[in-house]
Amino acid sequence: MAASGDHHIVIIGAGFGGLEAARSLAKGPVRITVIDRRNHHLFQPLLYQAATASLALSEIAWPIRSLLRGYDNVTTLLGSVTGVDAAGKAVLLEDGRAIPYDTLILATGARHAYFGHDEWEPHAPGLKTLEDATTIRRRILSAFERAEWQDNAAERRRLLTFAIIGAGPTGVELAGTIAELAHETLRRDFRNIDTREARVVLVEAGPRILAGFTEDLSAYAERALTRLGVEVRTGHAVSQCDAAGITLGDEVLPAATILWAAGVAASPAAEWLKVSADRAGRVLVAPDLTVPDFPDIFAVGDTAHVPMGEGKTVPGIAPAAKQEGRYVAGVIKARLDGKPVPKPFAYRNDGNLATIGKRAAIVDLGWIKLKGRLAWWTWGIAHVYFLIGLRNRLTVALSWLWIYSTGQRSARLITQADAEGSRSG
Q: Catalytic one among 119, 148, 155, 173?
């Protein structure tokens, strides 16, 4: 690489892709600036467990500065990016400052997508951030508390109805855990209600849940959810969502707690650069993950639309983002060394995993498929392995073992006020 450390690499976003790129590049003689609007890196695959009182927030998030403090050439900045001046090679911040760059990596992640119905968001929060998790946890737990006070039978049923829109991995995991929370964890905590009467409804517009898995694993997951007491409604698109509940065709489903797991959209990175994007807003990148017409700008993770043949794209999951971050780091190193750049990015599929409650899961590794308890243990070991730090691995593993053996979840705390107030619980 170059003898000096004058080459400045700016990374927007400290998610899986951005953090992996920063660590891979930090050992070279370059200057790296990581900009994120939050001060923590989030292990998003377990965010639903924080939202459903299974894990504490501190067990799935870590300060970015502490993760990068061992690299003297890495500067971490807390700030909100509002645009990119590609001609002037600078990142524009909300406070009016501009950060110059030689190479830019866009790892800006994704946000919720309500398919043209943004007015639904106050009634049906999604799950992408720690703030989302605390909001959802508050609404779930508050629904039971409010039902304990309620004398009106119809209103009590509404308060004890939980509707999850979208049956991908997040929706399935939320539905299964809420059902266990109601039927097992909370059943001896209340006196005026029977929490086992709670209704958990999982709504999916497509023909089956977990469409990214094979049909046999999808069918098993639906049976497992049904055994937990979840009502699975496939082939039903939501046409209305408000404080009273949701509408499926001509059917109105009263529900006090509505959760959104139906879709995501990329950050506005494509808009910043005025480049082509897919329907989800992801930047259409070149085979080396550069942005077309901008060879010094890369996009990774949920920011990038990366084809992988047969009309498919690289999924927006943590392992894919980490692979892309490492690849981009390799391309940048090769350029600075004056060496041939690596071959075009090729995604290595390490498998798909989803859990259904605390005793069942499905695992598709391609060469082998697992379901049931063995799959659950495989899922658990894989997620513990990818956590950061021995302390977090131990605490999460112990928390899971406690929940597995007793059914009790210790993080059942209602915090902060809710703008929806009494309407949402």
A: 173
**Neighbour count for residue 331 (Cβ, 10 Å):** 17
* 45 secondary structure, DSSP code: G
Give the residue from 356, 120, 343 showing the smallest Cα distance to 225: 356
pLDDT single digits (tens) 342-385: 999 999 988 899 999 888 999 998 889 999 999 999 999 988 88
Strand 90-93 with 98-100, pairing: antiparallel
**What's the 3-state SS for 15-32?**
CHHHHHHHHHHCCCCCEE
CA 325 vs CA 22, 292, 367, 401: distances in Å: 8, 18, 26, 33
* Nearest-angstrom CA–CA distance, 78 and 33: 11
* Known catalytic membership, residue 173: yes
| Distance set, CA 15 to CA 59, 219, 290, 330 (Å) | 16, 32, 18, 18
Dihedral over alpha carbons 197, 203, 207, 210 (to 10 degrees): -90
* E strand or H helix that includes residue 71: none
C-alpha span between 298 and 194 (Å, rounded)? 54
